[in-house]
Write a structure and sequence with these properties.
Structural class: mainly alpha
Radius of gyration: 17 Å
Number of helices: 8
Number of strands: 0
Mean pLDDT: 78
Strand content: under 5%
Length: about 200
Amino acid sequence: MSFSAWLGLLAICCLGAMSPGPSLAMVVRHTLGGGRANGIVCAWAHSIGIGVYALVTLLGLAVLLKQAPLVFNGIAILGALYLAYIGVQALRSKGGMSDKLAAGKSTDLITAARDGIAISLFNPKIMLFFLALFSQFVMVADELWGKSLIVLTPLVVDGLWYTLIALLLSHKSVLPKLREKAALIDKLSGVVLILLAVRVLVTL
């Protein structure tokens, strides 16, 4: 995988992690309810689930690319359309964060870890996102190192982002600022996802 291709993967992973959603809500809940340690444990448990999805998706797409290229291209097209769809949804979002940033109930570390991995593993939208995202990178990652980057990049980015959220939320004065920026994050994510969808369709 070239450095420029990896930068593209990194950018999309960052935007995917930053987009407000149920994963953010879970990390916020455990941070506010159990403290900084709970939030960090929840963050990295969530990232493990992301890594599992990334690995499973990568292996499945790699097999399809070799054995059934027409099916692979079909998945790539559907994935591009899905990326465009969630991009439009993000552009239309008003950045409503009130519920996501509500104070959480008291929890322990085991519960934080359980909820963190569950919210990623049992969210079918994450699998769809990876199918859409990875279709363009599988073709340029022939070696083990490239495939490892495809799996490790979303895992590490996800863990670091939600760890940062947990650290920031230790200071409750940060919450109003997050609410203010939610709409901007949504809009930025929407534009990038739509551009990515166009790129996938053009390069097939």
